[in-house]
C-alpha cells in the first residue's frame, strides 16, 4: 500500500512540476517568439487552461496522499513538533506554491488577460507594471517547485 501512495504522490508531483518546467522553458518562450501569429495566443491559452486542470488534479492527489505518507513514515500527523524539520520546510514550500498558484489562477491571470485585451496605447502605467510582474510569477513558481522537489528528495533519504 505504501508503494502505491508513494507512486501516486510522485506522479502528481511530476505532473505539476514537469508541466511547470514545460510551460516556463518551452511553451512561454515559443509563444513570445510567435506572438505575432494569431494562433499563438490561442495555443498558449488553451494549453495553460488544460494544464490548470492537471495542476489542480495533482494538488488534490498530493493533499490526499501527503498526510497518509506522513503517518506511514511514523510521524504523528497532528504533532508537527515531532516531525523532521525538513518536512516542515517542504510543507512551507508547498503552502507558498499553492498560494502562488491560487494568486495566478484567480487574480493575476484574469487581470493579465483583461490588460492584454486592451490596445497598447490604452494601457495605464499600472497595467504595464502588472504585466511586468506577471512575467516573473511563473519563474518564481518554477524556482519554488524545484526547491520543493529538492526538499522532497532530501526528505526521502531520511
Describe the structure.
By secondary structure, this protein is mainly alpha-helical. Helices cover 83% and strands 0% of the residues. The chain is built from 4 helices and no strands. The protein has helices spanning 2-33, 38-72, 85-116, 125-156. It is elongated, with a radius of gyration of 18 Å. The two termini are 20 Å apart. The mean pLDDT is 90.
Secondary-structure-based class equals: mainly alpha
Cα end-to-end separation:
20 Å
Helix count from the secondary structure assignment? 4
Report the strand count: 0
What radius of gyration results from the CA coordinates? Answer: 18 Å
Query: What fraction of the residues are assigned to beta strands by DSSP?
Result: under 5%
Q: Segments where pLDDT lies below 50 for 5+ residues?
A: none
Order of helical and strand elements: HHHH
Helical content (DSSP H or I, runs of 4+): over 70%
User: Which term fits the overall shape?
Assistant: elongated
Query: What would the average pLDDT be, to the nearest integer?
Result: 90
Q: Give a short account of the largest sheet.
A: none
Feature tags:
single chain; 158 residues; mainly alpha; elongated
Question: What topology emerges from the helices and strands here?
Answer:
Layout lengths: L1 H32 L4 H35 L12 H32 L8 H32 L2
Helix pairs in contact: 1-2, 1-4, 3-4
